[in-house]
Amino acid sequence: MRKVWLVAQREYNAMVATKAFLLSIVLIPVLMFGGIFVMHRLRGARDASDKTIVIVDGSGGVLFAALELAAERHNASPGGGDGGSSDAAAAPTPKYLLRRLAADSLSDADRLRLSDQVRLAEIEAFVEIPSGIMAAKDSVAPSVVGFHGHGAMLSAARQWVDKSLGEALATARLLESNVDRDTIGWAIAPVRVVPLGLFKKTDHGVEESRGNASLLMPLSAMLVMFMLIVVSAQPALESVMDEKASRIAELLLGSVNVFHLMLGKLLGTVAGSITVAAIYAVSGFAVAAYNQLTGLIPWEMLPWFIVFQILAVLLFSSIFMAVGASFAQRNEAQAMTLPIWILATCPIFFASQIVLEPNGAVATWLSFFPPAAPLVMILRLASDTVIPWWQPIVAAVLLLMTTLVCVFLAARVFRVGILWQGKTPRARELVSWALRG
Amino acid sequence: MKLVIQELSKRYPNGVQALDDVSLSIPTGMFGLLGPNGAGKSTLMRTIATLQEADSGSIFLDRIDVASGLEAADRLDVLHRKAEVRKILGYLPQDFGVYPKVAAEDLLDHLARLKGIVPARDRREMVHSLLRKTNLYDVRRQRLGSFSGGMKQRFGIAQALLGNPSIIIVDEPTAGLDPEERVRFHNLLSEIGQQVIVILSTHIVDDVTDLCQQMAIIHRGRVVATGEPNRLAADLEGRIWQKTITKDELAQLEANVLVLSTRLRGGRLLVHVYCDHQPDASFVSIEPELDDVYFRAIKDHSETIGATSKVAS
Fold it and tell me: Percentage of residues in chain A with pLDDT exceeding 70?
């Protein structure tokens, strides 16, 4: 074990003393969280120029009049807010200028002409309100209104028309039924549902557990874990490839057993990962303390975070070291890491679903798939939902077993591969190295 | 002390038979392992150095028991007691690398710690002594990346000498060195090889001639000759003939006699041939050299393999 420790010590010193490592500590969070910040800022800096919407009103002008009133209210309020979120109120939103076409319906030629106007950015969109929409209560009225524009699915203008037309239609129908305007206004006044956290007992009494952070906390924990995997596994690959290319491994193997060499390198990598984690943790705590947000930190999941982090780093670093040992050319090794990265990142694609349903089928099954387990379990554990107590244990045991098998097989590949020079081994040879050593 | 290799074989997954029933007895002193590139020398070196597994066979180190004086009384199984072997082994691989940003003294110290030289003071003394021995003491704080080929090779021998090893394996150590560095390296090796087993693997015949008391020639994984260089050369006494010819005459000569080697001299070819009697009056008898032993052994073995494969097909 003393030799393992010496190799680990050297590996750790070499890892943390590089400019690349120091840069990665700063750059990866800047890129990841900076990306989120930039997206947030860009959302605030969206196009706020006036938007002209052409309305083809099949109701004979009743709904257009109601929409015009809604547009006036929207355009008059600061930031165009209709009682939306505080973000929406702060960010400038476009004014909607409505223009009614004389016709009650459109021909195909009209539709082509209006579409061209949208393409030329002369108008934002055109809306087709079918005739018969104001039909009597006991007759069948059309229930679909067409909104034609760029990116109609995500368009803010469509969302505004959808909401405003719904209110206008309800108002018009209620007026037809002789309900007075005050009553209508009272009845259709919107109510906002805001996302808040659950309550729990604390030293200060009953407090809302994490408020708006209930979504951010799991995602942040997952991103931090992923960053730590990246800053550990990639240097592990580079280190093995460098030693193989420079043939220093042969020198070392004259004094140390190949399993000890690989184990030492792995432990050095884990120590490096823990160093980064500690730096992130201290920085994160300092930021949270400065903003008086330390109450949001889920201390109870910290042990699980450490367990899954170490196992994840061991798993991916051992695989990357085996890849590094197997290939003489750097580009071949990098290409080989692509499917491994896909495995590592797969929980990120399911992140929103896992956060929304931490005990759903996808979240549960992915927890028992070892390459995905660390990120998935951290997402689930950081959520407010109670996870069945046995699931993190089973996931950790499965991950531990897989990690041990991977480290063992990787060590066998490493043993042959580190002295292998020249042509790239075939897949069959790699399997043979892993199984027979 | 004696290293005994018995019936050692190794076949690579791609079908290459790197070692084929190799048996050798290597006594204390410099032992030359001569062979062309791809002969299996590096595989044999790596197997002795515990870096690689053999398919079959054995390697034992017989040490002299001080009490009884018997050589085989303390027998170390090299293939199965690798940790013990590494403690008494110094290995200088062919084409080894270094950490380019690390100072020579620091890397040597790290390797000494890996070797198990624990007391810091002893380690420091040993590292400094080896750096002096290899003439690197003045540049001990320099980064290894700035070392010349010869300096790097001397660093390689310094690390191979860590822990006062009983067996030192040096694989192609003089390849790429300029003549001055080569001479300096030879002096260093001969100084070391007086009390311990030094196995010198090379394809440069002069290295073996200059340094080794015992040698073996290996070709296509098999030992094709073994013994003292002088005696092996003496065995060819009276059967090596020399002649200067033109290039056009070579083909005809090869059809009649066993041509061992050709080298250009003044635009003409100086040929050495092997023959029990003088081929003709134009040939002169010469004192056999190790080159002649080497080429004869290789050619004989190639012919044997050729004949065997013809019979098999």
Answer: 87
CB contact under 8 A, A248 and B90: no
Q: Which CATH number fits domain B2-97+155-227: 3.40.50.300, 1.10.287.180, 3.40.640.10, 3.30.70.3270?
A: 3.40.50.300
Within 252-311 of B, beta carbons closer than 8 Å to A belong to: none
Contact B193, B214 (CB under 8 A): no
Q: Is A255 on the interface with B (CB under 8 A)?
A: yes
Model confidence band, residue A400 (pLDDT cutoffs 50, 70, 90)? confident
User: For residues A311-345, b (16+ Cβ closer than 10 Å) or e, as one string?
Assistant: bbbbbbbbbbbbbbbbbbeeeebeebbeebeebbe
Who's near A225: CB < 8 A, 6+ residues apart? A305, A308, A309, A312, A374, A375, A378
Interface test with B, best of A12, A255, A260, A415 (most B CBs within 10 A): A255
The ranges assigned to domains in chain B are 2-97+155-227, 234-312
Among A22-26, A234-238, B10-14, B289-293, name the one with the lowest average pLDDT.
Answer: A22-26
B97 vs chain A: nearest CA distance in angstroms?
4
Q: How far is it, in rounded angstroms, from Cα B112 to Cα B126?
A: 9
Cβ distance B12 to B40 under 8 Å?
Answer: no
Fold (topology level) of A49-188: D-Maltodextrin-Binding Protein; domain 2 (3.40.190)
In angstroms, the separation between the Cα of residue B213 and the nearest Cα of chain A is: 25
Full DSSP string of B163-186: T--SEEEEESTTTT--HHHHHHHH
Please determine, for the modelled complex, whether the ipTM score is greater than 0.85. no
The string over B103-118, giving b where at least 16 C-beta atoms fall within 10 Å of a residue's C-beta and e elsewhere, is bbbbbbbbbbbbbbbe
- With contacts defined as CB-CB under 8 Å, which chain A residues touch B14? 429
